[in-house]
Amino acid sequence: MKTFFCSLALSLFVSCSLFPLELAAQESCPTPENSRDIIHCVLIRHPELQSQKWNLEKIPAQKKQAGQRPNPALDFDIAVGPHQTQTSIESELFFSYPFELG
Question: Phi/psi of residue 65, each to 5°?
């Protein structure tokens, strides 16, 4: 039941954006005169609905990032320590580049 209400409220918030969120968040809600004013105040002030709106705004950027190729990685490790009677130095160089197989 809670999930249905949240999705319904989110769709109302997205489709009924009467004022920009930035302006509405700065102003306090006026004294409600009818049920529409109450719903409007709840939609612009509820923190969960605001976070969902920000999540919706992140989707295009996430799609763009997912479409980009990953950067290759270069890693270098060095280890210095005693080995029997001498000091030994080990070094390793790693290069990795992920690629798609399908």
Answer: -65, -40
